[in-house]
Amino acid sequence: MQRFYNFIFVIENEYHSEDEILSLLNYDDKWHAKLLSEKCINRNYLGQLSFSFVGIITVEDLLICILPKYFELDSLGFDDLIDATSKIIKVLKKASYIDRVTPDYDNFSFSSQNYFSELVLADNLIKDYLDNGIYIKEKVLLSVSQEGEVDWNKTINTFDPIFSKGYPIYTETLGYSTYIDDNFIISEVHKWLVKLYINKYGKLLTYNFTFSEDTIQDLTSLGAISYIKDVIYKELSQVYTDRQINILKILIAGLNKSYDSTIKGFSIYGTSYFHIIWELACSNVLNNKIGDFNQLIPKPVWNNLNEESKDKSSLKPDIISVIPSLEMLFIIDAKYYAIKYENNPGFNVINNPGIADVGKQFLYEMAFSNLPYRKYNVFVFPSAQTTFIEVFGFVTFSLFLESKIWLVYISPDHLFSSYLNNEIFDLSSLGLTIDKKLNDN
């Protein structure tokens, strides 16, 4: 656990004493109980606590950043930790559009305000501000003017013309002009909330600019919060564009996050299912073509004694990737495990996949045995390393002679960069590395 300013960085599933958790919450039992009730932290049989998901927890002005289990905090400084957390947020955001294991960034519904993430509100609000500026109220004024659009009906009915050569000339006209209401309450609320969110979340959301708008210090100087919300609700009933509706909803949700006693000061963004994010990123970057091979995997057939039978669904590999030009076929299982070798006192392996996972991988290889490819059976694991991919061992099983499951580390940093940029990793280098190791043996 590391603390810099109002940021606290911890590792998913890493255990801490209850006193450590209470101390970072300033010994506020309310927040301790909230974290437990929201299942943000788990307690083991020793009474130790761990954060059970990856993401951001906001507790008043404190930002608790929970990083995936493969990170090593001691080797990272503040800027590195901010960059790492920012990338995880971007990965969660992208994944949320495909697999609903993280909150949807774009849908705002008053029926679920308690579950809004303040970080999501901040990202949407700041992005809109950069694209469109502060929400303004334009008013239309009818006045005596030589500028703007002339209302000829009102002009004719109001003023007497001067006739020249039989033609009427109006020395004064009534016209419409628009102006911005500088005292519009919603504009002030918008500026106040944008500034708050930039100061609080700007670093994590990689918004690197200074907010230069004049902003009130105390929002209640505009009136009671209930009155301010009524003004926004009234405006919401009178506007029609998607942008206006979306911003007004964000402002209401933001006010609730800041002032509603039932949800004030607490917000979550993240997932307890980061293994799904890992599998999704591996599937994309390693060019998964499982859909082309599903029909080759046999299904178990259930029979009664009357010669009736029914086949049922079969096993499904995580990833099948093919390089036809090199006749390579990769059967890959993406494992979000912190696997390690130990030599204390003798050789051992910990956090490894179980026998069921091992058996399935060998069965998949048998299912594809007739295909005209060299088969590469692989477990991939996350590891904080500089190279994209590294072979570090293999699994054998005497029931499956002459077959191996290769153990491969993948750099999550490289993987997630490729995932965010929609890039495909060329697995031919992995195939050639495995070929070389086989030849060396």
Please characterize this protein's 3D structure:
The chain is of the alpha+beta class and 441 residues long. The chain has twelve helices and 21 strands. Helix 6 (185-201) packs across helix 8.
Q: Which strand order spans the largest sheet, edge to edge or round the barrel?
A: 1-2-6-5-12
Give the low-confidence spans. 107-114
Main sheet: strands, sense, barrel? 5 strands, mixed
Helix tally? Answer: 12
Mean pLDDT: 86
Q: What shape does the CA trace take?
A: elongated
Structural class: alpha+beta
Taken together, the total number of domains comes to 4
Question: What is the percentage of strand-forming residues?
Answer: 15-25%
Topology:
Layout: E1 2-4, E2 7-11, H1 18-24, H2 29-37, E3 41-43, E4 49-51, E5 54-59, E6 62-67, H3 78-96, H4 118-132, E7 138-144, E8 149-150, H5 152-158, E9 162-164, E10 167-169, E11 174-180, H6 185-201, H7 225-236, H8 242-259, E12 266-271, H9 274-285, E13 301-303, E14 309-311, E15 319-323, E16 328-334, E17 340-343, E18 347-350, H10 355-367, E19 374-382, E20 389-395, E21 405-410, H11 412-420, H12 428-440
Parallel strand pairs: 2-6, 16-19, 19-21
Antiparallel strand pairs: 1-2, 3-4, 5-6, 5-12, 7-11, 8-11, 9-10, 13-14, 15-16, 17-18, 20-21
Helix pairs in contact: 3-11, 4-6, 4-8, 6-8, 7-8, 9-11
